[in-house]
Amino acid sequence: MVETFSSATTPSTDRAVRPCHPADTVRTYLERGWWQPETIPDVFRHRVTEAPDAPAITDPANLADLTGAHPRTLTWRELDDHVLDIAATLLANGIRPGSTVVIQLPNSIALTAVYLALWRLGAVATPMPVSFRRHELSGIVAATDAEAIITVGALGDREIAAEALTVADGKRTVFGFGPGVPEHAIPLGDPVGTPARNRVRDYASALPVTVNDRITVCWTSGTEAAPKGVPRCHGDWLAVAGGVQDGLGVTPDSVVLNPFPMVNMAGFAGSFLPWLLAGGHLVQHHPLDLTVFFRQIAEHRVTHTSMPPALLTMLLQNDALRARADLSSLRTVGSGGAPLPPPVVRRWQEELGIQVINFFGSNEGVSLLGAPADIPDPTLRAQHLPYYGAAGVRWSTRLAERTAVKLVDVTSGETVTEIGGRGELRLRGPAVFGGYLPGTADTGPFDHDGYLCSGDVFELCGEGGRYLRFVDRVKEIIIRGGMNIAPAEIEGLLMDHPAVADVGVVGYPDAVLGERCCAVVVPAPGATVTLEDLVTHLRAREVASFKLPERLEITDALPRNPVGKLLRRELRARL
Question: Given 454, 473, 492, which residue is the final one in a domain?
Answer without folding.
Answer: 473
